[in-house]
Amino acid sequence: MILAIPLIAHLLMSLLMFAFPHMTRREILFGVVVPADFRSRPEGRRAIREFRFAVTIPAIAGAVAIVLLGSRFLPVLLLAPITTIVAGFTAFIFQNQTLKAFAVQPSPVRELELNAEPERLPWFAWLGLVPLLMLLATAWYLRANWDSIPSRYPVHWGLDGNPNRWADRSFRGVYAPLLFGTELVVWFFGFALAVWYGSRQSEPLRRPIVGFLVAAQWALALTLAGVALGPVVHLPVALVAVGGMPIMLLSIVYLIKKSRDPRAPVDPTPNECWKGGMIYYNPNDAALFVARRDGVGFTSNMGNPWSWVMLGSLPLLIAIGFLLLH
User: Fold this and answer.
1) Which residues in 237-262 are b (16+ Cβ under 10 Å) and which e?
2) Could you tell me which residues come within 8 angstroms of residue 217 by beta carbon, excluding any fewer than 6 positions away?
3) Cα 309 to the chain's mean position, in Å?
4) Tens digit of pLDDT for each residue in 229-270?
5) What residue segments make up the domains of the chain, in order of their start?
6) CA torsion angle 260 261 265 268 (round to 10)
7) DSSP H/E element including 290
8) Can you tell me the distance from the alpha carbon of 177 to that of 134, in angstroms, rounded to the nearest whole number?
9) Helix, strand or coil for residue 165?
10) What is the DSSP string of 212-281?
11) If we measure between CA atoms, which residue out of 84, 168, 178, 77 comes closest to residue 131?
């Protein structure tokens, strides 16, 4: 049972890497815009086959290592999926460089979007404020039931299901998960606003991405509220750990479906501004976010200084949360 969770996580990560070439639209392969029928050509089939081979070897080796060595050498539980991920991204970059010879150049004509009024946020974006109310209601409930909280209680469990960290009945011990959840929920709501107003209005993934970020807010709020309520309500650890996952999974499925819509316009970003098919750097592009070429969703335009502000703020918030929870 101790090895089951890391083994399943490794296998899921391996399957995700194996499916990497099929997570984008047909005209984008390994971060390169190619002819619509390129995947069925010998060159396209060979590129996909070579990528899968490069991922399969470390995936199988990692699974065997977890089963045979995981109980005696714990670092292998982490090294196995990391090795598969590194191998996958290395193979992706290699194929990106190889397929550039078949790249289709985007049209030199650029469209300028002019609107008298900025486009309104979709109605469901405001659902991103509900998680804040969840966390506030949880804090109020804990305050009302303060005497029911044990003086010392577990807040973290190991892979074997046994608690390995405890907290005291204090302001920090009780409310730290809610404070951490609040800062993350606020950040995700701000990120959703940045995506909506910082991407092209013609981009078909704008609405699905905002929906995904709202779903992430709900999942975070439910999880951290469950952690905070644990000493009083005694929720099962498994329920707290996976309680928000159905919301995330549904939003991811919807996002993947929309990203593969054949009616979507061709990616207008210049090929030469993509580094390895993963990083977009174009100081001449006013867009803060553009559609990814290596998977589903958006990526930041690293040529825009505001991208560094947005991306740099998240590690800072996580570091603050780490200090709160420890």
Assistant:
1) eeebeebbeebbeebbeebbebbeee
2) 128, 131, 185, 188, 189
3) 18
4) 888 877 665 566 566 677 777 877 777 777 776 666 677 888
5) 4-102, 123-325
6) -10
7) strand 289-291
8) 13
9) strand
10) HHHHHHHHHHHHHHHHHHHHHH---HHHHHHTTHHHHHHHHHHHHHHHT-TTSPPP-S-GGGEETTTEE-
11) 178
Which tens digit of pLDDT belongs to each residue from 179-231? 988 999 999 999 999 999 998 887 888 888 998 899 989 988 888 888 888 88
Helix runs in 152-205, H state only: 171-198
Residue by residue, what is the 3-state secondary structure of 38-87?
HHHCHHHHHHHHHHHHHHHHHHHHHHHHHHHHCCCCCCHHHHHHHHHHHH
- How is residue 96 written in tokens? 């990106």
**Does the predicted model carry a pTM greater than 0.90?**
no
